[in-house]
Design a protein that fits this description.
alpha+beta; Beta-Lactamase; six-stranded antiparallel sheet; binds methionine sulfoxide
Length: 137
C-alpha cells in the first residue's frame, strides 16, 4: 500500500541520516518480526548488501535481541560465538529493540568497522530513535 511504502521511505531516510552523520555507524538497517513466523526479515538499510535477509529467532546478535528484548552491544564481534558475519570489515555491532505497545516488533541494527566504538550515549540515542520509529509504524 502507499502508506507502507511511505514508512519504508522514512525508515530508509533514518538509515541514511545515521550512516552519513555518525562516523562509527557503517551499516545501518532495520529488521522486523516476519508476520507470525519465528524469524526476522530485513527492512530498509544502508551499507553493503547482506545475504542475511531472514534471521531465525535466537540466531546471531539480531536473533538473540528478538528473544531477549534487550539492547545488545558487541564491542568485538570476533569474541561472539552466536554471531552472523555479514562483512569481514565489521568489528563491532549494536542492536536496539523497537517496542510497540510493549511488544518487541523489530530492531535497529548497526555495524561498525571501528573496534569498540559504542557507548551508553549510542544506546540512549538509538533508544530515542527507536521510540520515534515506533510512532510511525
Ligand atoms: N551480524 C548480525 C547479522 C545481521 S548483519 O549485521 C547486517 C547478527 O549477528 O545477527
Amino acid at each position: 500500500s502507499n502508506s507502507k511504502l511511505n514508512v519504508d521511505d522514512r525508515l530508509l531516510g533514518i538509515c541514511q541520516l545515521l550512516e552519513a552523520n555518525v562516523p562509527h555507524y557503517n551499516w545501518v538497517g532495520f529488521y522486523f518480526k516476519n508476520g507470525d513466523k519465528n524469524e526476522l526479515k530485513l527492512g530498509p538499510y544502508v551499507g553493503e548488501p547482506t545475504d542475511h535477509t531472514i534471521i531465525p529467532f535466537g540466531k546471531g546478535i539480531c536473533g538473540q535481541v528478538a528473544v531477549s528484548n534487550q539492547n545488545f552491544v558487541v564491542p568485538d564481534v570476533s569474541a561472539q560465538d552466536n554471531y552472523i558475519a555479514c562483512s569481514i570489515t565489521v568489528k563491532a555491532e549494536i542492536v536496539i529493540p523497537i517496542f510497540v505497545n510493549g511488544e518487541n516488533i523489530g530492531q535497529i541494527d548497526i555495524d561498525s568497522n571501528t573496534p569498540d566504538p559504542f557507548s551508553s550515549e549510542d544506546e540512549r540515542f538509538l533508544e530515542f530513535v527507536c521510540e520515534n520509529v515506533a510512532q510511525i509504524l
